[in-house]
From TrEMBL:
GO biological process: methylation
Provenance organism: Mytilus coruscus (Sea mussel)
Methyltransferase among keywords: yes
Domain of life the protein comes from: Eukaryota
Protein name per its UniProtKB record: METTL23
Enzyme category, top tier: transferase
Similarity comment: family membership: Belongs to the methyltransferase superfamily. METTL23 family.
Any single GO CC term annotated in Swiss-Prot or TrEMBL for this entry: nucleus
One Pfam family hit: Methyltransf_16
GO molecular function annotations of the record: methyltransferase activity
Keywords in alphabetical order: Methyltransferase, S-adenosyl-L-methionine, Transferase
Length: 227
């Protein structure tokens, strides 16, 4: 553990894969009240899915939204994707944390940008088309749900084949985004955690997933039957 500018820092290590083929990631966390300074339980689950899909990641352009400590984006970069990390432009310390995760893994070719969900800033408007959007535990405050979907749907307009891979931690069974998907023309498929060996309280040598109920979804632009 180290201390910088009066704030304690710790490093967490995650190991995906086996002894013969693996991906080891170091994530610095800052002991701070901000949500984006810690690795959340959804994050190793999404990163494990990325590791499972690594053969299709090579050469793809991947954007992580609400990245915080950026574990999924870092794994995507280590699997050969061109990665852009983003968090809210309102939280510069989270953007610094995204950059710190790149540094801790010797990844110098990752871009970090401020993208606030629901805001059509130059950073979003000028964003290059991406193949995959990643979102780990972004759906945690219901007030943000539509802004996230609007941002994702906007990015998908640039490349209609773009997929949104996201993990969601169940905090209330009454929450739903079904009406938002319908409103913004998206469809969603749930991916069983057992299909990529993520249905365990321990993952990537981390106990973070614990007993939380986590879901993995892939969202796509709905192709209308009359188009
Ligand atoms: C629960 S944390 C998850 C962080 C990280 N993805 C993980 O799973 O470890 C939610 C993240 O969303 C970011 N965030 C919150 N509101 C946002 C907004 N309006 N636009 C973009 N990012 C936002 C926070 O800064 C934080 O990094």
């Amino acid at each position: 553990m180290s201390c910088s500018k009066g704030r304690q820092k710790i490093e967490k290590f995650f190991k995906f894969g086996s002894n013969s083929e693996n991906c080891i990631v170091c994530i610095p966390e800052v002991l701070d009240g901000n949500y984006g300074m810690y690795v959340w339980p959804c994050s190793p689950v999404l990163a494990q899915y990325i590791w499972y899909q690594r053969s299709q990641l090579k050469g793809k352009t991947v954007l992580e939204i609400g990245a915080g400590t950026s574990l999924p984006g870092i794994v995507a970069a280590k699997c050969g994707a061109t990665v852009i990390l983003s968090d809210s432009s309102d939280y510069p310390q989270c953007l610094e944390n995204c950059a710190a995760s790149c540094g801790a893994n010797n990844l110098s070719n990752i871009t970090v940008v401020g993208i606030k969900w629901g805001q059509f800033t130059p950073e979003l408007l000028n964003l290059q088309p991406v193949d995959i959007i990643l979102g780990s535990d972004c759906f945690f405050e219901t007030k943000d749900f539509e802004d996230i979907i609007v941002t994702v749907a906007f990015i998908m307009q640039k490349r209609p084949s773009t997929e949104f891979w996201c993990t969601y931690q169940e905090r209330s069974s009454s929450r739903s985004i079904e009406y938002l998907l319908l409103k913004w023309g998206l469809e969603c498929t749930e991916i069983g955690l057992e299909t990529f060996e993520a249905d365990s309280p321990t993952l990537a040598e981390s106990t973070l997933p614990g007993n939380h109920t986590i879901h993995m979804y892939i969202m796509k632009k709905k192709i209308s039957s009359d188009s």
